[in-house]
Amino acid sequence: MVILTGDDLTLDKVRQVIFEKEQVDVSPASWERVEESRNTVDSIVQNGEIVYGINTGFGKLSDVKIKDQDVKELQKNLILSHASGVGEPFPETIAKTICLLRANALLKGYSGVRPVIIERLLQFINLGIVPVIPQQGSLGASGDLAPLSHLALTIIGEGEVFYKGERVPTCKAYQREELEPIQLEAKEGLALINGTQAMTAIGAIAYLEAEKLAYQSEIIASLTIEALQGIIDAFYESIHRVRGYVEQMEVAKRIRQYLSDSHLTTRQGEKRVQDAYSIRCIPQVHGASWQTLNYVKEKLEIEMNAATDNPLIFTEEDKVISGGNFHGQPIAFAMDFLKIGMSELANISERRTERLVNPQLNDFPPFLSPDPGLQSGLMILQYSAASLVSENKTLAHPASVDSIPSSANQEDHVSMGTTAARHAYEIIQNVRTCLAIECICALQALEYRGVDKMASMTKQFYEEARKIVPKISRDRIFSKDIERMNGWLKKIPLFFLKGD
């Protein structure tokens, strides 16, 4: 059971809820904050005060006073009009994470919603009701308005959800679970959609996948080092210690652990004096990518526990203040940084793949073919990796440097953080495929080099991987091998990859 407090949600807890299906609940102290915040909203409505988001219009229409009897309709209209997302829906993992992060943010007690709103989000998570949320349509500044509006639709019984393997109208899932739609009251519509939870949820799932890939890149690179009889001296501890980057030292240490008892690695001068950079500089390049991952993790965990609503209700100070915490610039930068860091793991992986298949760079049969000429072997796998690497270069263009004014120029600077996060997620899928290709090529090269001479840890990985992609004895449809390897890498337990 994961207990939400609004203050201490971590990426590891996200992993437990989303991938390990842990149930969620709320700490009693958090409920108290929520109720106090709601009491403030009720008091404002009863006293006839004019406060943005409670009894006014929105954005450029914030100067329009709403009649008391129309406040509930105002909130519903807000959701209906802002549910303007387009494109394919988010994967269920991301949509479920949006629910989790929105519930956690509301539990901080600065948004003024009733507990029933948060309880519904928890029911979604625990019952497996996942809102259908289109991926495109957010500028990432007034909060993720369009995506979060599609989440809010399901709370009021509108829209669609994924439920028990089907995409169904929300009302159908409600009937099966004996739930009733919730009528939104003052402030609640705005509180549901004004926040950065869409971009942050994409970022959280992207990070969790990226972290696993970063570990996988090291053991797959270790297979390649053995296949190419790489020089182990380049991973000598003192080399990395004198530069001083912790992440670089940790990568080198894990490579040394993976290859500690290998009979395939060489010493400098035995076969060559130095390896190419894609082998020799693995700690420096992969370590730099780990630096970006650490930065991204820090920013995501801050944002996951942040109050990003507007206006914010400060109960103890008896103030309701409009600000700009919904602006996604910190996450936009982090996601653009993630894009670059992960793209480089694919870049260097593709270069290692080239060294495995190019007969001018190794002593294997051309393209690792079982019968060169008659059979092309793994020639085109490198093409596919090169194509993905090139695509990543386009996706890695920073979204955060763009801004398009909206809401009649009231919202005149936006972050494009959700676009950055979406592109980061796409890049990570491409990175996994590039690593799958390198892995397939390294496995085949090791058939020629001598599996019996492999290190204990890499041989264990080899044997498990061979259950997924068998030895290549003749040409076949390699896209199926890539797909199977890709799927296996996505599911493989994280603990196996840390060199523990």
TrEMBL record:
GO terms for cellular component: cytoplasm. Its EC number is 4.3.1.3. Contains an active site 4-methylidene-imidazol-5-one (MIO), which is formed autocatalytically by cyclization and dehydration of residues Ala-Ser-Gly. It comes from Fervidibacillus halotolerans. InterPro entries: Aromatic_Lyase, Fumarase/histidase_N, HutH, L-Aspartase-like, Phe/His_NH3-lyase_AS. There is a cross-link at A141-G143 (5-imidazolinone (Ala-Gly)). Pathway: Amino-acid degradation; L-histidine degradation into L-glutamate; N-formimidoyl-L-glutamate from L-histidine: step 1/3. This is Histidine ammonia-lyase. Its main location: cytoplasm. Gene3D superfamilies: Fumarase/aspartase (Central domain) (1.20.200.10), Fumarase/aspartase (N-terminal domain) (1.10.275.10). PROSITE patterns: PAL_HISTIDASE (PS00488). CDD domains: PAL-HAL (cd00332). GO terms for biological process: L-histidine catabolic process. Keywords: Cytoplasm, Histidine metabolism, Lyase. Transmembrane segments: none annotated. It is found in: Cytoplasm. GO terms for molecular function: histidine ammonia-lyase activity. It catalyses: L-histidine = trans-urocanate + NH4(+). It comes from the Bacteria. NCBIfam families: hutH (TIGR01225), PRK09367.1 (NF006871). Belongs to the PAL/histidase family. The modification 2,3-didehydroalanine (Ser) is found at S142.
